[in-house]
Amino acid sequence: MPEKKIDLHKPLKKYFGFDTFKGNQEAIIRNVLSQNDTFVLMPTGGGKSLCYQLPSLLMEGTAIVVSPLIALMKNQVDAMRSFSEKDGLAHFINSSLSKSAIESVKEDVISGKTKLLYVAPESLTKEENILFLKSIKISFYAIDEAHCISEWGHDFRPEYRRIRTNINEIGQAPIIALTATATPKVQHDIIKNLEMTNAKIFKSSFNRPNLYYEIRPKTKDVDKDIIKFIKANEGKSGIIYCLSRSKVEELAETLHINGISALPYHAGMDSATRSTNQDKFLMEEASVIVATIAFGMGIDKPDVRFVIHYDIPKSLEGYYQETGRAGRDGGEGVCIAFYSQKDLQKLEKFMQGKPIAEQEIGRQLLFETASYAESSLCRRKFLLHYFGEEYNEDNCGNCDNCKNPKKQVEAKEELTTILELVVTLKEKFKAEHIIQILKGESNEDIKAHEHDQLDAFNTFPDEDSRYLDTVIHQAMIAGFIEKDIENYGLLKITEAGKKYLKNPKSFKVTKSIEFDNEEDDEETTALKGGGSGAADEVLFSMLKDLRRKLSKNLKVPPYVIFQDPSLEAMATSYPITIDELQNIPGVGAGKAKRYGEEFVKLIKCHVEENEITRPEDIRVRSVANKSKQKIAIIQAIDRKIPLDEIAEQQDLEIEELLDELETIVDSGTKINIDYFIYDIMDEDRVEEVYEYFKEAETPNLEAAMEELGPEEYTEEEIRFVRIKFLSEMAN
Question: Of residues 536 and 640, which shows the higher confidence score?
């Protein structure tokens, strides 16, 4: 029976206080009122909740809303109750309620007071809840955060895949599935799993023109960069996302002791503290919240002015949803992500031990994230294409790549070769494999398929893999190639691609951004191309001369005394006392006392002679907890506890422990790890690495690996001996 055209503006004004609908809200609501299945794809801030809240008030019975988070349910229920004089209008059932509270909720539902009942997906599986829901009139089911259904979604939850089975058991009613972020693959999964093949699909544009997107290389000064940015945007609200709980705690404290009102938020905190911190942020008692991705779902703060990703997220979907929390009021929204390949490798390591299919999906999602971070293409264009939306502007004017466009190069030959190769391989391989063939990488996989025998093998041996990846991505955006969403991203050639092969034309691309040196060892100079990162080049040169002289007298390599970045910092902030010298990166109390006297004397003399006004102390104050951890590590080494055990005790990867040990010896503290080194390495091997560092001009790890041979020594072995060497020679 056709739906009677009712005026929806009156209830919209009555219940929600709005005069007009946003976007396609009205069309969606009319479709729900007509009792049709509905699929809603609407970015954060677009008003998804209203699409099921308003029809629930107008239809007979109770709408069942499946929602993934207890905090999210509570927020939604509180919001709905604020529109009504009666609390019974909206309720939730989840594990946070007592038995008597659940009984009270059920009474309100049975009496007809409750129009919206929020349930967790786990609650739907409980026999007593199924029996109860069978006994009531259900107007429709709303599946919020529906991307949780898909293994390709950024927040996959296995219990979401059982929702359809539960609905079949409880009783049929129309379904509305809603998500703020879903790629074509995830959309397909949601519709298939919920058996909504006849659903009417409503897609809003993913474009958020007010958001500015920027990727920055993640250097050792990342904390300082963030502090500078926040202080330049004083009084503005912001969210900083970190991948680990420990980083959340550490960064929040670093910001706090540097005069920024920041609070931590992660799932490991007790719920009372978490709620208090969230409320303080919402009430603007704190301007910054540092959080894991546990924070943000359902947080309705319209004036978040910046979202910073301290670590690159695991997927572009996650990135898009998290950046979407900025500028929801249409005002300024700055989205900065810090990216390093080292972080990417860590994320890949975390996947080990998971089922193979899950690892494969995880790797594909990471590959897309890396491509986005390293791309010189318009960020907006890249993101929208990822979500299946065309963006026809060449320059969005509101991302780092469009504000600072890179030079384009001709890629006709590369594109033609790639398209021909996709055809030759019968569309059965992914981008990574194609790039390996073009670069002539003779690995096991290539040999097994005899792809080293192909004409295309080793066509572009000198091209950067990232450049070839850029060509593939820009060919996808141009419509010549597409990814098979059902098969882990296998590349397929389109009709347009076949036409291009028949008549190749000019195809220009921008080369990818370089991220090679963002995590180099501290001895690399801050700027490439001859100049140093020092503000005072004359003083920097004098400090290097002094270091060279001391190095000859003490018979140690110059870098053992102070590394270049430490000298650069001295030639920028002019420390003239031993105490001030200890604030310089890479200079601890031990080094300052041992070598510092002559350096501060030279700097003081230079400052006085040239009448230099010294800058204010702009150092980033370090976190006390970090010192506690270092002390715990040093004490454990004194007790000769094996380093792998220390790493476990301190909740560190062995690589992270090595970072800590290097910081400890770089700052002038002596430690003795011989008990561990000689347990894992032969004496002559230790001797060979030690002698190398004695003669080397630089302690650079890559140079050491190359010289000593990666087939002879592991990176960890070389780092252990380097720590021994620096501790004994410098300290």
Answer: 640
Are 148 and 318 spatial neighbours (Cβ–Cβ below 8 Å)?
no
Dihedral sign, Cα of residue 244, residue 246, residue 252, residue 254: negative
Q: What is the DSSP string of 260-296?
A: --EEEE-TTS-HHHHHHHHHHHHTTSSSEEEE-TTS-
Report in angstroms the alpha-carbon separations of 587 from 28, 313, 533.
62, 33, 17
Q: Using the predicted structure, report yes or no on whether residue 4 has a pLDDT greater than 60.
A: no
**Domain covering 406-510, topology:** Arc Repressor Mutant, subunit A (1.10.10)
Contact 44, 96 (CB under 8 A): no
Structure tokens at 27: 């069309």
CA–CA dist 93, 682 (Å, integer): 62
Structure letter (DSSP) for residue 3? P
- If one counts every other C-beta atom within 10 angstroms of the C-beta of residue 450, the result is 9
> Residue type at 647?
A
pLDDT confidence of residue 528: 28
The top-level CATH class assigned to 211-402 is: alpha beta
Tokens of 418: 């790639």
Structural tokens at position 372: 């986005």
546 has pLDDT over 60 = yes
pLDDT over threshold 70, residue 153 = no
CATH 3.20.20.70 is right for the domain spanning 537-609: no
For residue range 74-128, what is the model confidence (pLDDT) as tens digits?
A: 667 776 766 666 677 888 887 777 788 888 888 888 888 888 999 988 888 888 8
Half-sphere exposure of 439 (CA within 13 A, CB side): 16
Q: Which CATH architecture has domain 9-203?
A: 3-Layer(aba) Sandwich (3.40)
Please identify, in words, the CATH class of the domain defined by 624-730: mainly alpha
Q: Do domains 406-510 and 537-609 have the same CATH topology?
A: no
**Where are the domains positioned within the chain?**
9-203, 211-402, 406-510, 537-609, 624-730
User: CA angle at residue 635 from 629 to 638, to 5 degrees?
Assistant: 145
Per residue in 192-218, pLDDT (tens digit) is 999 988 899 998 888 999 999 999 988
Mean pLDDT of 132-138: 89
pTM of the model: 0.62
Burial class (CB in 10 A: 0-12, 13-18, 19+), 650: middle
